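Work Package 3 (structural annotation) set out to generate three-dimensional models for the target panel prioritized at the project kickoff. During this period the team completed the workflow that converts sequence records into discrete structure tokens, so that structures can be stored uniformly alongside our sequence database. As a representative example, we reproduce one entry of 477 residues exactly as it appears in the project archive.
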Amino acid sequence: MTIYQNLIAGEWVGSDATKNINPSDTNEVVGLYADGTVEDTKNAIAAAKAAFPAWSRSGIWERHVILKKAGDEIMARKDELGALLAREEGKTLPEAIGETIRASQIFEFFAGEALRLAGEIVPSVRPDIGVEITRDPLGVIGIITPWNFPIAIPAWKLAPALCYGNTVVFKPAELVPACSWAIVDILNRAGLPKGVLNLVMGRGSVVGQTMLDSPDVSGITFTGSTGTGRRVAAASIEHNRRFQLEMGGKNPMVVLDDADLDVAVEAAANSGFFSTGQRCTASSRLIVTEGIHDKFVAALTAKLETLVVDNAMKSGTHIGPVVDEKQLKTDTDYIEIGRKEGAKLAFGGELIKRETPGFYLQPTLFTEATNQMRISREEIFGPVVSVIRVRDYEEALATANDTPFGLSAGIATTSLKHATHFKRNSEAGMVMVNLPTAGVDFHVPFGGRKGSSYGPREQGKYAAEFYTSVKTAYTLA
């Protein structure tokens, strides 16, 4: 079987390899992918540093053409790349193809942004002096991505990093190297100069730590667990390095008495259980007022009974497997914790056997939960959702905000008054009204508050806040 190698200084470099296993069929090896070393990572950083002076001064048309070409190829291969994503991560094929399309759109957007690079010319308060305000690329960017969106998240970090003239060392999650390798191969063939983009697959304790230890990495953008994010922050502060963190969530969806029941149920089911609940924006806390509580639980339970859990590649599958055995154990451990805490297991919670061996788990719904239970406060990152009963809107808002996280929040209501108040008073970075909390556009800012995020927002024109440094220049006329 072919070993997919790391890309360092424009060359594919051999290394020891690890198996990439299909969570829908653990008998299938998706591929063998390089396991990078400390030396590989140091070489990649050196290559990126050497390539930075020329790339940072490259023409905007060159960057535009490369990013546009990459986006076009991703779109042309959406079915192939979507199937690869579904096989390695376990996302259903329609979801995987949709994610691939989004990656293409992200590259298309930043191809346009490359042609829209601009600054300001402003008058000085002093006579005969001109002031120019411009943005310079930051330098070598370390990119560390998670396993749950193996093509979209790399795209929304790689595209702006390259658009604004930075060079890159990219470490994808160990569980999902295939999509990252494919996207790097596409960018490499699109015409990036040697050393501008370097891919080092491997363990976080080796590749990631070497990136954190290097004084030559000017910025780190990280999406992953809260614990690892804190380590990224601590290491970056030591080097006076810019860092951007997207971490956990325990996102609430409020359902009020006046909600359209069908809309509320569809939004809750999508938010909590689709993509196997493995989204940082998933709603794992459903905060429901008394008047609609019983009807909502009954309707949501009926909805869950119709959802098919099976092989991600199979037609008709609504929910694929959990990504791997470790995450499956985390999910089942939390299900047991919920039972012991006194929550009622209203639906699911059982392991499932299917035609192919995989990490299959029923969508799990707890009722009679409180906001103090661990299942309501800690991120599980699986298809496990708690329903919390509250008296009224005021208690619902207070409960929604009572969390150490603040990524996404939603409300189901037909009241303009309550929708407007919730948008203004929710302590989350993104707020959805009568929509799933998971699912965002590629051209607007993404990010949260509290323990969910740190640093400038990702995506859209706001990405420039992280990937560039503002320069102010004065000239005597």
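The radius of gyration is 23 Å.
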